[in-house]
Design brief:
The chain has about 270 residues and is an alpha+beta fold. It has helices at about 5-15, 25-40, 50-55, 60-75, 90-100, 105-120, 165-170, 175-180, 185-200, 245-270; strands at about 50, 75-80, 85-90, 125-130, 135-140, 155-160, 205-210, 215-225, 230-240. The strands form two sheets. It has a six-stranded antiparallel beta sheet, sandwiched between helices.
Amino acid sequence: MTWTETMIEETEKERPAQSTKDSREQSVRAVERALDVLFTFSEGEAIQDIGSLQRHTGLSRPTLYRLLHTLEGKGVIFSSGNPRQFQLGYRFGTLLRTWNQSPVIASIAREPLEQLWQETQETVALMVPVSLTHRMCVLELKSPQVISFSRGTGYTVALTRGASGKVILAYMPPERREKALATLDAKQRERLLQELGQIREQRIWVTYGDVIPGGAALASPVLTKDQEAVASVCVFGTELRMRDQTLDRCIQAVRQAAADIEHRLFDTAR
């Protein structure tokens, strides 16, 4: 069976008898899902099969096949082999050449992050939401410590994992947050919602081994005047170092850096 025939067959299995959703809402949701698919690709998983994409996105096979077929037609996905394997397509090279490698918020945040790096001597980063479900690192300063953690600028990961994603989720408008949590089961959802409530009270969050085994992370949100997170300031270190007085110092420094970036953003907007 050809790739096109597979896509058509899987699509027919899921086709509803009658759609009750507004066409505009469906179109927006399709874009969000397409971005979710693209953000599953990373340096460690540059090539994936349909099963891997299902696990990462929580989407059904028919939905995935439709999205992949469209994305491949636009050159942003390339597929080969039998069974089919997928990777980012040639059009991403074009996007990369035109991408501004210093987004405005990254430029504004550089000085506060450099100060944070000096104070903590740990890896520090600025994360921004790039979809309802993922955030991306747009600026990272690596720790000088012999044992440290670094994922690099451009790294993307789900908002539901790690301190830097959860503080963004905590300040996301309720209707968008509902969509962001849609792939979680009931138990995961309940636990995460409790954490998000605590984050809104404390404006800081600390996690251990949530993304990297043996790693610790703490983060604070950068908020707009409407109390929506446009970014998060993060510090990454080892579980052994991020304890007691060291952790307390890092928490104060991260909060200060986030507040400093907020102040600079408001000044720039005036």
